[in-house]
């Protein structure tokens, strides 16, 4: 019992940890380019040395297929590190900016400085990537970091605690394992930034705790991400890309997975047939036996998804799938047609392998359906119509939009494993789907303060700025502030426009 008490992580231990990290940050060590580079290289080495153990932990937590674990977790984390290593010197360099005539002669720059000691609370669905990706940004920006992995993915949490302690500088980078009690103890402390990935309910708790100390937050949440399907498309490619984004992304347990489809009543039968056909090709006649589908993370989430399916007004709407194995925590890819809009499955984020299809009279009506709901993290449209694409981009507010594909904007926001995507896109939500963004340079910026610096010499000291404020001085200052060269000349020679 005494040993258990000794190991208990409470508010006192959290405060002691933050104090220790503040001491390390105050020493200046984390600000150096060399320290940042060394930590990033150590993370890459950690991944390369322990890839087998990482894959095994992800299999234990989620039954994640090895290829999916490699592509969406290991490779993306390494790629994020490599981009930071390549670009860090450029990111750290002060940005020169223009000055105005009112400060002439002068020069100015924006200096990126680390915020200090930051807290990162990660999610369970991509427990390796979503833990280390923001940590990489925080390190690149020169901060001391505490990572709190999700207890819902215990194998990966334990792995991160073990290997980060072994590979990185523990005086500035620490991992705290645990559940609600440990997270609460951490949230009681004063941080310089809190980065949270998860759901809106917990995000409100995080934001309330942060508000007590005026701590800025990044909230990476989710929402009901729609996929609009027009009739003028390549149907097979569309079906495959929806399946890849839904069931090929952790079996729907992804914040940017398509949450529901909107298509026309006339086109729905063709789309459904295509989805059924491609699903059988990908996962076989009995998808519960497929080794290419992740399981539901735990019994609580299995029960939650079962409740969505078993609601009276929903259970009769299943047109494909619906098979379940509670012992193995597996649910087959499931398609539902025209479920009531007030049902649980259409009012809550699904975060699982269930995909409702909503039908409308004409595809343009889908925009009203989307805009009548909270802003999603992602929104997708499949169409060849140029004007429809423009209207989608103009009308729909979401964290990110993707035309004719799913989830790839997440890779584009990070770094594609094939280095084909664009790492210049930010990834983040809007409204209920989150605030702030990260990935690539945006991760560095998320954990940096942009400090404005103006340089002046002792020359060019204009008497017009000092009392007494004569009429001539007033005319000159008005002309300067209005940017009127002609007015400045008139004021200097003693004339006025009047």
Automatic annotation (TrEMBL):
Entry's Gene Ontology cellular component terms: cytoplasm
Membrane-crossing segments per the record: 476-495
InterPro entries attached to this UniProt entry: Ald_DH/histidinol_DH, Ald_DH_C, Ald_DH_CS_GLU, Ald_DH_N, Aldehyde_DH_dom, Aldehyde_DH_NAD(P)
Gene3D superfamilies, sorted: Aldehyde Dehydrogenase, Chain A, domain 1, Aldehyde Dehydrogenase, Chain A, domain 2
Catalysis performed (reactions): an aldehyde + NAD(+) + H2O = a carboxylate + NADH + 2 H(+)
Active-site residues (renumbered): 220, 255
Name the record gives this protein: Aldehyde dehydrogenase
